[in-house]
Write a sequence for this structure.
């Protein structure tokens, strides 16, 4: 269905070799490594640690059980911890602990001497060290880890460069950031980002991961998925891509100021035009836009608002944002979420909400595809409420 290819700007990428229908399973991949991501977890299966966890019989680090199904994933560091007698004491199993951000780097480094096949994948991955090293704190952290691996864990063969590469690979290619575990996949790491991606992950990242198509993908088209939340303000997404993954996105949506005709994250001028950049594209009036921080705050408020709050802020939203703007879309999504739970939903059915719901679906389809998760969810709710 797809093959590996290369592109000047991005390096190795995946390209469809045939037309792929929407909602098709396109890619399944096995993780070469499952890693903790800052919180105490079982070093085998990566389940969050609880009081019921037991110390590994060999190294003493916490495991879910003697019969952990992914115990193999703990083997390499287990040998190192056993030999060096390196152990830590955890005061609170629910809190972040620095060592669980160091162990993932160690696990990647250990492949070098222990697993040729997986190491060749790690070696082929980009680490973006040239960007990462601009942060003095990162340089210090990596130096600290390298010294610790050599002195406290007895790994005299480890070089600073080994740790730099492992750290960079983890930051660039680790999937599952923000949760308690993170995975490195040999094929998935070739998927590049797009703010209107054609693939969506099924479930959440695990030792195995599956991607399906959200829209029709034409033969020759690049396979993409979104590293960030697609339903966010474009400048917020772009800033996140810049700070976490060090790149300027040049996807179709980023290059199109109208975001496929939806003006999803631009405000409308009184004349009917839109404020792309600082000026209205029709009457050339300057400014008139609500600051990004205010829009973000409003989005956060909408996400948790009860029905009474939504009703209070409705007129302000509608006075400032057109129907296909992200803020209005989120407002309508929240309304539909709440109404579907309510017995008296009938009382809220009105023409305006129906029109807003229709615009929401059209907008979601353009931004995220007819088979994206948000579209499928809100189409179902919309039909339940209004049809
Ligand atoms: Zn386990
Ligand atoms: Zn162990
Ligand atoms: Zn983009
Ligand atoms: Zn105007």
């Amino acid at each position: 269905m797809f093959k590996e290819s290369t592109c000047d700007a991005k390096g190795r990428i995946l390209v469809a070799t045939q037309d792929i229908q929407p909602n098709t399973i396109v890619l399944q991949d096995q993780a070469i490594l499952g890693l903790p991501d800052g919180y105490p977890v079982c070093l085998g299966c990566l389940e969050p640690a609880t009081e019921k966890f037991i110390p590994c019989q060999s190294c003493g680090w916490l495991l879910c059980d003697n019969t952990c199904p992914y115990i193999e994933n703990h083997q390499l560091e287990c040998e190192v911890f056993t030999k060096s007698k390196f152990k830590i004491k955890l005061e609170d199993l629910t809190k972040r602990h620095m060592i669980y951000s160091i162990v993932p780097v160690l696990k990647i480094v250990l492949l070098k001497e222990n697993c040729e096949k997986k190491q060749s994948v790690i070696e082929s991955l980009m680490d973006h060290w040239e960007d990462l090293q601009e942060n003095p704190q990162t340089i210090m952290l990596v130096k600290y880890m390298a010294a610790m691996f050599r002195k406290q864990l007895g790994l005299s063969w480890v070089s600073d460069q080994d740790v730099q590469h492992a750290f960079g690979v983890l930051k660039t290619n680790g999937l599952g950031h923000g949760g308690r575990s993170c995975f490195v996949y040999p094929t998935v790491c070739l998927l590049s980002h797009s703010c209107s991606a054609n693939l969506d992950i099924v479930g959440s990242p695990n030792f195995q991961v599956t991607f399906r198509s959200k829209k029709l993908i034409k033969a020759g088209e690049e396979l993409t998925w979104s590293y960030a939340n697609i339903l966010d303000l474009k400048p917020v997404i772009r800033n996140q891509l810049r700070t976490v993954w060090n790149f300027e996105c040049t996807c179709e949506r980023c290059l199109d100021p109208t975001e496929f005709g939806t003006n999803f994250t631009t405000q409308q001028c009184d004349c009917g035009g839109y404020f792309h950049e600082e000026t209205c594209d029709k009457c050339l009036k300057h400014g008139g836009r609500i600051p990004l921080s205010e829009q973000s705050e409003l989005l956060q408020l909408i996400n948790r608002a009860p029905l009474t709050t939504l009703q209070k802020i409705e007129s302000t939203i509608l006075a400032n944002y057109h129907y296909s703007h992200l803020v209005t879309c989120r407002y309508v999504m929240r309304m539909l979420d709440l109404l579907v739970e309510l017995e008296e939903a009938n009382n809220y059915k009105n023409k305006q909400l129906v029109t807003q719901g229709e615009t929401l679906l059209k907008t979601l389809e353009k931004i995220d595809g007819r088979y994206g998760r948000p579209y499928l969810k809100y189409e179902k709710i919309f039909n339940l409420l209004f049809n």
User: Anything to note?
Assistant: The pocket of zinc ion (ligand 1) is lined by residues 42, 44-45, 47, 63-64, 68, 70 (CB under 6 Å). The mean pLDDT is 92. The chain has four domains: 2-30+188-253, 33-184, 257-289, 290-386. The radius of gyration is 24 Å.
